[in-house]
Design brief:
Blueprint lengths: L1 H20 L13 E2 L9 E5 L6 E3 L21 E9 L25 E2 L2 E2 L1 E4 L16 E4 L8 E11 L3 E9 L3 E5 L2 E6 L11 H7 L7 E7 L2 E10 L9 E8 L5 E5 L1 E6 L9 E3 L2 E6 L3 E6 L5 E6 L8 H5 L3 H15 L3 H18 L1 H4 L5 H5 L1 H4 L7 E2 L3 E5 L4 E6 L4 E6 L12 E3 L2 E5 L3 E5 L5 E5 L10 E5 L2 E5 L5 E2 L6 E3 L14 E3 L2 E6 L4 E6 L14 E7 L24 E3 L2 E5 L4 E6 L5 E6 L18 E3 L2 E5 L4 E5 L7 E7 L21 E2 L4 E4 L3 E5 L3
Parallel strand pairs: 1-42, 2-45
Antiparallel strand pairs: 2-16, 3-9, 4-7, 4-9, 5-6, 8-15, 9-14, 10-13, 10-15, 11-12, 11-14, 17-48, 18-19, 19-20, 20-21, 22-23, 23-24, 24-25, 26-27, 27-28, 28-29, 30-31, 31-32, 32-33, 34-35, 35-36, 36-37, 38-39, 39-40, 40-41, 42-43, 43-44, 44-45, 46-47, 47-48
Length: 701
């Protein structure tokens, strides 16, 4: 049995080469395999920001040294420790907000234990992002007083000493429960005597995006000097019984116009919206999805956007439905024309909101979005555009989380568009093409006629599928494959095979399909089952029985699944494994790599990749599947880091690349562009990375 499993390793290069040589059915992972062995793309690239945050450190105590090597770092712009004084009682928190309770606010430079106005400065730990805590909902608040000890009309201070090797222009984005004033090196840089908070937590990222709103937090800019600087914050509680917190969440960041040092970035193109989906290559063009409903075509040589098309409930109306309500033409079409001509992302938000409100007012049952709380809470990472487009080389098919499917020729001429009847909205999976049928998933699996968009069948037995539906040929028959490894016949949706106890168990991506074999993950990264369909006979039978060659468990010590405090840590994965030359490579969401031998079923090694991804309620540090580019393996986190590894039985890092593009944030999130949730795709000489705001072409100039 083990020797038969090993055969696949010898054939992978041939299989992958044939996929690249012919026009592939593109989709999940860009070519459905994550293997680009013929690519000669450079595997070193950089876009490094050289600003005030580079090498920044901060400490509570007054520094006694010129350098800062012993001071805590300021990871992602968060200060790890503060000195806090107070709170003081005042008559009215608003009227007395400008009273100098320190007797010299502009000169404050305290150290722990020092007394001011008969009170003692005490050290308070700042809250940092924790990449090992899944699903954090709250912002990294610093509290000066607990809500259960709330008192009206109180004022307190928080102070930190900040070290910046370079100095320069710096931005602070801050949410505060009530009043806040800030001084940098004795100069007042911000003042708001009342509450300023547009977010409050990570879950509202989703709610605001769904509502097409963006309520900003407080924001101010200032210049840091090279070396040590003083930051003083003054906070107040409310002057009445309403907001009971006395806290703030402040994040420092470089502005977007920071100086960059670049290497091997041939072009970067700003995109009209974010997406976690993967671009696909078709000839000399790249096709990708963008929030909330766009299919975008990009020239792969220049990065120029050639065309885009909206795919939503309104666009899916038939001509008869439009004619039946003349208000569509008079009230909606002018707004859509204005939206299409508006280049500014911020200005598009109120237009989208107005369009949605207008449509609901005209036909609420048709246009009001229906979704459950789980989907709504995670929309900030999922979005409507999570599904990757798919192409047969002549057409591009798009499916989105609204339940709208469409087909275009390569020049953007719409062939058809349809709204598939679904239940409440949830995660949309990438579609697949097989035997003239487009399979789409939203709560259930649906089969559409790829030529017309007509709904052919619905299969309710396929009811769990997060990332993608796959297509392949097993037993000389084209089939669809679900995330759980279920095999579906394209002609009528019949389920031909279902693995025993099909659960995702923390494995959110589809199987790997190579040759006659299927590699299905379960329990996060911890288990991999290998099925062989070579001996299956495709007849009229509705029950296939492939051979289960192996179920390979990782051999891991118990402590690897425990946090430092002893609590359990599920090693979930958002990506499919990479199967190459008899080994499988899996990466969990925390950035640990696991390598298995498919022949001996042994754990070859596991190793922390020392990535620095961002984790919270709407962010996962590592989501992209590991990818083979040429003869190297690429693993990405969501904060711009790419680790380049040598394949094989020994852990060897060949390069560590960074793209540090800073975005213009209105909330206290890292300014770093989210890059990347999608794995890279490649051609002969370049690879392409999809970020939150930009598409990057990595290639020698």
């Amino acid at each position: 049995m083990a020797s038969r499993i090993a055969i696949v390793g010898c054939c992978l290069a041939v299989i992958a080469s044939s996929l690249l040589a012919a026009e592939p059915v593109s989709g999940w992972r860009g070519n459905a395999t994550g293997l680009w062995p013929m690519s000669k793309a450079p595997l070193e690239w950089q876009r490094l920001g050289h600003g005030a945050l580079e090498g920044m450190r901060a400490q509570a105590n007054r520094p006694t040294q010129a350098g800062a090597s012993d001071a805590p770092a300021a990871p992602k712009g968060l200060i790890a420790e503060w000195l806090v004084l107070g709170p003081f009682s005042v008559r009215d928190a608003i009227e007395n907000f400008d009273d100098d309770l320190l007797g010299g606010e502009t000169k404050a430079s305290p150290t722990v234990g020092e007394r001011t106005a008969e009170l003692e400065w005490r050290r308070v730990a700042g809250t940092l992002d924790d990449p090992m805590v899944f699903g954090t909902a709250g912002l990294p608040w610093v509290e000066l007083a607990k809500p259960d000890r709330f008192e009206r009309n109180r004022i307190g201070y928080a102070h930190a000493h900040i070290y910046s090797p370079r100095g320069g222009r710096t931005r602070a984005v801050v949410e505060h429960c009530f009043g806040l004033k800030a001084w940098v090196n004795g100069r007042e840089v911000y003042r708001s005597a009342k509450r300023q908070g547009g977010l409050g937590g990570y879950e509202p990222i989703s709610k605001q995006e769904l509502a097409h709103t963006e309520e900003p937090a407080g924001r101010f800019e200032f210049d840091l000097l090279p070396g040590w600087n003083r930051l003083l914050l003054k906070l107040s509680s409310s002057n009445r019984d309403d907001w009971k917190e006395m806290n703030f969440c402040l994040r420092l960041m470089d502005p977007p116009n920071v100086e960059y040092e670049t290497k091997n970035i041939r072009w970067m193109t700003e995109l009209p919206g974010r997406s976690t989906s993967t671009p696909i290559l078709v000839g000399d063009r790249i096709y990708l999805a963008a929030e909330p409903d766009l299919l975008v075509c990009v020239d792969k040589t220049t990065g120029r956007i050639l065309w885009s098309a909206q795919n939503n409930y309104y666009e899916a109306l038939t001509s008869q439905q439009r004619q039946a309500n003349p208000a569509y033409a008079t009230r909606v079409d002018p707004l859509i024309a204005k939206l299409k001509s508006e280049p500014d992302r911020t200005a598009r938000l109120p237009l989208r909101r107005e369009i949605q409100e207008t449509l609901v007012s005209l036909d609420q049952p048709r246009f009001e979005l229906q979704y459950d709380g789980h989907f709504a809470a995670h929309f900030g990472i999922v979005g409507f555009s999570m599904p990757t487009p798919v192409s047969d080389g002549r057409h591009v098919y798009v499916w989105n989380g609204m339940g709208v499917a469409a087909c275009y020729d390569l020049d953007g001429q719409q062939q058809w568009i349809t709204r598939v009847p679904t239940g409440p909205l949830e995660y949309g999976s990438s579609p697949a093409l097989a035997d003239g049928v487009l399979a789409v998933f939203l709560g259930k699996l649906h089969g559409l006629n790829a030529k017309t968009g007509e709904l052919l069948w619905t299969q309710p037995r396929i009811h769990k599928n997060i990332a993608a539906v796959m297509a392949t040929a097993f037993a000389n028959q084209q089939v669809f494959v679900s995330q759980l490894g279920e095999i579906i016949r394209p002609s009528d949706g019949t389920v031909l095979f279902r693995p025993r106890n099909p659960i995702d168990g923390g494995c959110w991506a589809p199987p790997v399909l190579l040759g006659s074999r299927m590699y299905v993950g379960k329990y996060g990264v911890k288990q991999l089952s290998v099925f062989d369909f070579q001996r299956v006979t495709a007849t009229a039978a509705e029950r296939w029985e492939p051979e289960l060659l192996a179920t390979i468990d990782l051999t891991l010590p118990k402590e690897h699944s425990l946090r430092p405090d002893g609590s359990w840590l599920d090693r979930s994965t958002a990506g499919s494994p990479l199967v190459h030359q008899g080994l499988s490579y899996s990466v969990d969401i925390y950035g640990c790599l696991y390598v298995r031998d498919l022949e001996t079923q042994a754990t070859v090694y596991y190793h922390d990749l020392e990535l620095d991804g961002l984790m919270h309620y709407n962010a996962v540090p590592v989501a992209a599947s590991p990818t083979l580019i040429g003869d190297r393996i690429v693993v990405l986190d969501n904060q711009g880091t790419a680790v380049i590894l040598a394949p094989g039985r020994e852990f060897k890092v060949l390069a560590r690349n960074r793209i540090e593009t800073r975005l213009d944030r209105v909330w206290p999130l890292p300014a770093q562009e989210t890059l990347a949730y999608a794995p890279p795709i490649a051609d002969d000489n370049c690879l392409y990375l999809r970020g939150e705001r930009f598409l990057y072409c990595i290639g020698e100039k």
